[in-house]
Design brief:
Layout lengths: L16 E2 H6 L7 H20 L2 E2 L8 E3 L5 E3 L6 E2 L23 H4 L8 H16 L9 H12 L29 H5 L6 H10 L10 H5 L14 H4 L7 H9 L2 H13 L15
Antiparallel strand pairs: 1-3, 2-5, 3-4
Helix pairs in contact: 2-4, 4-7
Length: 283
């Protein structure tokens, strides 16, 4: 009898914000110390789950919750996976249809099914740059388009920079841009003037997952030990009501006047001449 079955509930702490919602609010101005605090907490969290053989598989700004006291929490483990060492002469075969497209690493876009924590680190690199640019840095509409944007920023995807990439299932089935040089530093400089931050983003957005920096080494980067020091997020975030991505989108969707005003404001704002790096979110 279904009516007699007992019920149980999970009760979680309420987090006032998610990072995507915060970045949509132009009134929230992060200092370099604030960015260091957020990124260090994110990397600490990933280091913990990776050490325990768990990969998140959907790292994006909307899945990073932050309390009004400035404590960051990883959310939405619906796609998370416990990874196991492959058996002798047998590769792991996980699905490659994970990670939201704009944060999906090139190995998954090319059909790799034997992957590990490096897929989460690519998403960290995207979020790190997003902290300055205030919107996702590569907003592809299809897997093919996303690979093109990645190539324009990170250079051509080829065996000379990524040994063995030509063996991935989709490498010969997709048209990949050729003769593209790596431009992470050049394209990010108009937004990010901190050299150590640029260096870390560059290492996080490494095409070859075997060479991509891991959470342990990333959190030990000189970026976090240089001036200015980490800043307390509480004085900044406690001033604002809840900021969530879906809340901001819904608010705009049902308020045509606000949409029109925001569009007019965006058209008036000068944009730096940096192709393919948007200055506002794509809805």
């Amino acid at each position: 009898d279904k009516s007699s079955r007992s019920k149980f509930y999970f009760i979680f702490e309420f987090c006032d914000h998610d990072l995507a919602g915060i970045l949509r609010n132009p009134n929230v101005k992060f200092s370099l110390g604030h960015i260091k605090s957020i990124m260090q907490q994110l990397l600490d969290g990933l280091y913990f789950i990776h050490k325990n053989h768990i990969i998140h598989r959907d790292i994006k700004s909307a899945n990073i919750l932050i309390t009004r006291n400035g404590v960051l929490k990883l959310a939405d483990f619906g796609l998370a996976k416990v990874i196991t060492p492959p058996k002798p002469n047998h590769q792991n075969r996980y699905t490659c249809r994970v990670v939201t497209l704009w944060y999906r690493p090139p190995e998954l876009l090319l059909g790799e099914r034997d992957y590990g924590p490096a897929i989460d680190m690519w998403g960290v690199g995207c979020i790190f740059a997003e902290m300055w640019i205030r919107s996702p840095i590569m907003q592809g509409t299809t897997e093919q388009h996303q690979l093109e944007l990645i190539s324009h920023l990170c250079g051509s995807i080829e065996p000379s920079v990524w040994p063995g990439v030509n063996k991935l299932p989709l490498y010969t089935k997709l048209k990949l841009p050729q003769n593209e040089r790596r431009k992470v530093h050049d394209r990010m400089k108009p937004y990010i003037q901190e050299p150590l931050a640029l260096d870390l983003i560059d290492k996080l957005l490494t095409l070859d997952p075997k060479q991509r920096i891991d959470a342990d080494n990333a959190v030990s980067s000189d970026f976090f030990y240089s001036e200015p020091p980490l800043a307390d997020l509480k004085p900044l975030l406690s001033k604002y009501p809840s900021m969530f991505e879906l809340k901001e989108v819904s608010r705009n969707a049902y308020n045509p006047q606000m949409q029109q005003q925001q569009q007019q404001q965006r058209m008036k704002q000068p944009r730096p001449n940096v192709p393919n790096l948007p200055s506002e979110p794509i809805y």
